[in-house]
Write a structure and sequence with these properties.
The protein has three domains: 55 residues; 183 residues, no CATH class; 49 residues, no CATH class. The chain contains 18 helices and eight strands. The N and C termini lie far apart (49 Å).
Length: 383
């Protein structure tokens, strides 16, 4: 006899809506979904487990009498047209929880290794001013615009920046999907990144579904949050726009100044050149997104607010039209998603017997010993 599970139909509707899934697509996988939602039929235990997995819903939620009110575990600095954004998606919540678990493990590891806290985390204040905070970030992370200019291209400059941030002691992770689940993409419209502040285990997450041109600015923006000692989720579509919450606006200005110091920018801006051509020339010179250059031109007074809004929108549309992603090698992708600092520490701890393989697999999002060993070799660990 098949056992069916009584579930409040409102919970089923809430679950797929929370995961922002297309109901027509979901019905193809769960043909009886409409009957479940009307209460005409109830799902079996296996069907409910599969539905929970597909919607990234904790299984126990389906036994609640009503949909729960979920809150983000860190402050939400995102705004759209200066208004708070809607409730978080299941994908954002799951990504946050994954990173929080990894940060908690790394904090315990750092304390066990008697690693000193990082003095620069929370070492700055908004009252210090944009230039001072940007200079502090450049000094620690070695963000030298002249050195960045020698990079082969923008991608090489971005990779170098990620490496420099990790060398400073900050965990850097970037992903365009939830964990390793390619059927659960992250939305750039919802968020571009977040910072988890901690003196022993500061962590920055970058939404890799975003264009590479925008990821460098997001990384610099999240560093500004860490220097202020604040955890938080970053803006969605208005990351570079001059509006938004006070903290976000400050971090935007710090990020722009850290990447393209105003003194350097003014020295090379050609006011007689075509603005669009000048945006692209200076983006190549500073190895940053053209969007950062447009923002700098506005900050310098070379673009009015109206001209900024037009140029920003046009350039963003152009970038998104030509943006393309690729899957690539799984193990190289893993080191990109996890960074190197976190998996190196976890692999060393696991191989040394301090961390259980079971726990390492959970933190890495893998299930096979073979995958673990190949990842270790990719990171140059002998197995």
């Amino acid at each position: 006899m098949t056992t069916r599970v009584p579930v409040n139909p409102r919970l089923l509707h809430w679950a797929w809506e929370r995961a922002r899934l297309d109901p027509d697509t979901l019905v193809k996988r769960f043909p009886q979904l409409e009957e479940w939602e009307t209460g005409e039929r109830q799902p079996t235990l296996k069907q409910l487990e599969d539905f929970a997995k597909a919607t990234l819903t904790p299984f126990g939620y389906f036994f609640l009498p009503e949909p729960p009110e979920e809150t983000l575990p860190i402050p939400d600095f995102r705004t759209v047209a200066s208004r708070a954004v809607r409730r978080p998606s299941a994908q954002l919540l799951e990504t946050l929880n994954i990173c929080i678990r990894r940060q908690e493990w790394y904090r315990e590891h750092a304390l066990a290794e008697e690693q000193a806290p990082l003095a620069f985390i929370g070492g700055s204040r908004i009252a210090d001013g944009v230039e001072a905070v940007a200079a502090a970030i450049r000094a620690v992370v070695r963000l030298d615009p002249d050195a960045r200019r020698t990079a082969k291209d923008g991608d090489a400059a971005l990779r170098a920046m990620f490496e420099q941030v990790e060398e400073a002691g900050i965990l850097v992770m970037r992903n365009g999907v939830v964990g390793n689940n390619t059927s659960q993409p992250l939305s750039v419209e919802e968020f571009r990144g977040f910072a988890l502040s901690d003196p022993h285990a500061p962590l920055v997450f970058i939404n890799a579904a975003d264009t590479k041109a925008a990821q460098m600015f997001t990384l610099a923006h999240e560093l500004a949050h860490l220097w202020l000692g604040e955890s938080g989720i970053s803006n969605s579509e208005e990351t570079l726009a001059p509006s938004g919450a006070a903290t976000e606006a400050f971090c935007n200005r710090v990020a722009a100044e850290a990447l393209v110091p105003m003194r350097d920018f003014r020295a090379v801006w050609n006011e007689n050149a075509d603005p669009v051509a000048e945006f692209r020339r200076l983006a190549t010179r500073f190895r940053v997104s053209t969007l950062v250059i447009i923002r700098r031109a506005h900050d310098a007074g070379f673009l009015s607010a109206e001209s900024f809004n037009i140029a920003y929108k046009d350039e963003l549309d152009r970038i998104m039209r030509f943006a393309r992603g690729s899957g690539g090698d799984f193990y190289k992708t893993q080191t990109s998603r996890l960074g190197r600092r976190f998996p190196r520490a976890l692999l060393e701890s696991t191989l040394g017997g301090a961390t259980l393989y079971r726990d390492a697999f959970r933190l890495l999002g893998i299930s096979k010993t073979e995958t673990f060993e190949k990842l270790a070799r990719e990171l140059r660990f002998a197995i």
